[in-house]
Each structure stands twice: as structure tokens, then as C-alpha cells.
Amino acid sequence: MIRALRTLAPMRLTDVRSASGNVRLRRAAFSLALLGVILEFALSGNTLENLGIDYASPGGNPIIKLHPATYLAAIGCFMVLFLTKPSGSGVVRFFRATPALSAFTFMMLFCAFYSIANVGFSGAAVYVESYLAPAMLWVALDAGTDRQKRTLAWWIVGFCVLSIIISIGEGATQTHLIPLHIDDTVNKAFADDVEDFRGDGLFSHPLTAAGITSMATFMLLRMRMNGLLKGVLFTTFLIGLLSFGGRAALLTTIVIVVLAAGFELLRGMVRRDLSMGFVGAIAAALVILPPLMIVLVTSTDIGERIITHMYFDDSAQVRNLQWLVLNHLNLNDVLFGVSPDRLEMMKYQIGLGGATTDIENFWLLMFLNLGAIGFAVYVVALGLFILHLGRTANHPLGWMLLISAIVIASTSNSLGRKSTDLFFATACIIAMTGYPKTASARTGTISREQPIGLRTNQRQGLRPTPVKLLGSKS
Q: Which of the four, 48, 331, 389, 437, has the lowest number of CB atoms within 10 Å?
């Protein structure tokens, strides 16, 4: 027995040291991914182009076609999967613990190579930036502690507020803080179109800003903070949605929040367990928000575009015309996708050949890029990723965020181009998991189910398992 204990003790010490090293690696990976999220806010596509980095234009060096945040997410993912001890155990856990995410990754890689084989390398960066980068970000961010994830939530809130403030200033001055970088003719057209001016804050496009603000709104409702502060931030986000001029984002966010609040109110009345704080928040929202929104819309330029475009405008006409492209497809196009040059020709044929017009539905864009065979794989892959994120959040607000994000993205071509939508959705979902349900008063343990992931038990991971000696008390 003594000989067995002598051999067991150093093994326990080695395990503790290994666990301690793994925790440090995971926290470092989270920090790198957090820096990536910050850079995604700070360096939009327009900013990179204005800095002389040919990020968004076709052709050029493929290395600079990826955002710096993508590289940071990849490094953080590599640390979690390949540098944890024992060597390679992170990869094994990745496949065992996250089957949906693993399948999504491989299916998106298949879509990328399938697209390259059929229509060429043009557009291949979309699969890395818009889809694989969020998967790598999830692996790196999920390795963080609850405290780190709450820090991430506050970083997101802070940048969203900053972007809203910038957008309001842009609307007042009719000038973009970060100049557009398309071409001189298009830039002048946007500058002269005062009636259609929209501030875009820190982002490349107002619709991107509106979509991310919508995601942050649901994340904000999950955060724990002073009720008054949460109310002020929620109101600020609604003002931001008005300022960015995204009709789909504003309407979708308000409808989902109102339906959820109404359902919670009815359920509380039936169960007779309504919280006075929740009732007070609903009453305050009904009293304050409608008059405030009316004053802002009627007395300022905020929300002017939304009010003046409440009709079938040119943007809606483009979304109607885009489906005519299906009439020009041949059998090869339907099965294997359309090359970029042929797609440009078909856009001219249906009246979408202008510099400021494009196909505004990412589902249609991905179908045209992949064809029916690849598109079927793509739809399954995206569904698996959304399912994985929803299970990660393990909260109704997480599902609301994801439903809202997909509905809003479906009104634009965001996920059919290089996009940050899923990147920020992943960041917001991970930030939500930093706010677990209240610990049980009787047992002191967390009552929520642990979301699937690669993390070890952070509260007990550093504690060596005690060796029970003969004759000792348990």
C-alpha cells in the first residue's frame, strides 16, 4: 500500500501542474480572442482600405484579405486545441464535446473547396471570414472564465455605445467619420444624397452596425447590472437602431422583445409569481420609450430615413428584382454554381448592374455560388452552427439573439460576402454564458446545465484529488 501511494503522489502533482498550465493557456487564448473582437470593432473594412490595406477589393495578396481578428482567433483556437496537455487532447475533446461545431467546420471547408473547384478562387475568403472565423473564435472564447466573459460583454456594450454616438454625430454633420472606400463616383453619390444619409459608426455599412446593435441588445438584457443603467443602455441601443436606419433590425428587435416580454408577463400572471422588478421595468418602458421615440423622430434627424422610407422604395425594388436572376440559370449553374464574371453579366441583364446595387439576399448569393449540391451542405452546416450557439447560450435570450440575427441577415447580402455578423453573434453568445443562473442556496452549486464546450471545471480544476489513506476519516 505504501509503495502504491508513493507512485500515486507524484502523478497527482503532475496532473495538478498540467491542469494549471492548461488553465493559463486557455485564459491566454481568451485574451487573444478578446483582442480580436476589439480589433473587429476598431478596424472595419473601410478603415483597412483607408490605411492602404487592400482588404475588400478583388484580387491582390490573399494574406491581407483576412482581417487581423481572424488571425488572432486562429491563434487562440490553435492554443486551445494543440498546446493543452496531454498533447492533442484538446482536439479529441473538440470532436467529442462539440459534434455540431465539428461537423459545421468540416462542412464549411467542403463548401469552400467545392466553390473553388467549380467557380474559382474569387470569393473563397468569404468562407474563412464569415464562417470559419466564428468557429475558431468560439473555441478560443469558450476557454475563458465567467469573469473574462463578463468583461467581454462590457467591451461589446462599450463599443456599441461609442458607435451609436459616432453615428448620431455623423447624422448631424452629414459626414462619415470613417470615409467610404468604394470609388470616387460612388463616394460622391453617397455624399450628395443627403436625404438618404445614414451614419455607420465604427462599421463599413449602416446595416452591419444595426445588426450588431440588435445582437448587443439581447446580450444586454442577459447581463446583470443596475436596473437604471440597463434601462439607459437599452434606450441608447434603440436610438442607435433608429440612427443606423436599419428597418429590418429595428422592427425585428422590437417585435421579438415585445413578444418575449408579453409571454413572460402572461406566464407570471398564470403562475402568480410575477417579479415586481419585471413589472416595474415593463411599466417604465411603456411610459418612457414611446414618447421619447416620437420626440426624437419628430424633432431631430435621428430615424429620419426610416420614417421617410416607410414605403416600397428603391432598396425594396432591388430585393424584388434580384430573384429574376434565377430565370437566367442553365442546368450547370443550378447544379454547380455561377462564376463571378457570369453573375455580373446576369446582374446587368436584370437591371442590377449599377455600382451601388447588388443581390441583397445572402441565401440567394450562396445558392448562386455553390449550386444546389453545395448549397444543401451549406444550409445543414449553418443550421448546425446556429444550434450549437443556441445550446451554448442555454437561455431563451440566446435563441432570440440568433433568430433575430438570421432574420436581419436575410434582408441583406451580409453572409454572402465577407461579414462580421456570425463573428459578433458568437462573441455575444459567449459573453452571455458569463452570467450563470443563481447558485443554489442549499448546495452552493450552479443550477444551470454546463454548456457544451472544451473547458474544464474552472472552480475545481486546480484542486488535487485527495488520496484517502487507510484509517483516515472521510
A: 331
